[in-house]
Amino acid sequence: MSSGFIIGDSRLAERLVGSIRAKYPDLPIHVHSHDTAGISAASMIAAAVAGADVVDVAIDSEYFHISYMRGLTRTLIGMSGLTSQPPMGAVTLALEQTGLGTGIRYADIQALNLYWSQVRMLYGCFEANVRASDSSVFDHEMPGGQYTNLMVCLCLDRLPCFL
Predict the structure, then answer these.
(1) pLDDT (tens digit, 9 = 90+) per residue, 79-135?
(2) Domain definitions of the chain by residue range
(3) Are 8 and 133 in contact, with CB atoms under 8 Å apart?
(4) Amino acid 21: pLDDT
(5) Does domain 10-157 have CATH number 3.20.20.70?
(6) Which of 10, 35, 72, 142 makes an SS bond possible with 40, Cβ 3.0 to 4.6 Å?
(7) Cα dihedral across residues 17, 100, 90, 86: positive or negative
(8) Measuring CA to CA, how many Å separate 22 from each of 6, 17, 49, 69, 130?
């Protein structure tokens, strides 16, 4: 299934996936969303409950405060939310409560969170500096990747960029 619009309402996700599932019961349904407005976890859960075979998620955006070298600390962030996909931990744990459990252990998700948070530090110089959800996506309907690209262009072309 490919959709060119924003599923910003979990009821819409449920109706869309449910309708497709009812008409085409054997069709694999894979739902992808960006979390720019901060609400796609609810839509992904609703899509799964309605019959989606796959919903996309990303490693959680938890903050880890790691101590190193004589008491100094470093804050590490994950990969989900904002212009990425909704957090894997939240969607996975919520699906466990619906009877649609994934079989992925929470401890394993946390281990992945820590690993990818550290990897992300290596790419910090490429960050688009998007720090919070933006509900204006409902007005401009710009997909997550384009939103991030625009922020990078603004940084490079018009604003002082401190990488």
Answers:
(1) 777 677 888 888 999 999 888 888 989 889 888 888 887 777 777 676 666 666 766
(2) 10-157
(3) no
(4) 96
(5) yes
(6) 35
(7) negative
(8) 22, 8, 13, 58, 39
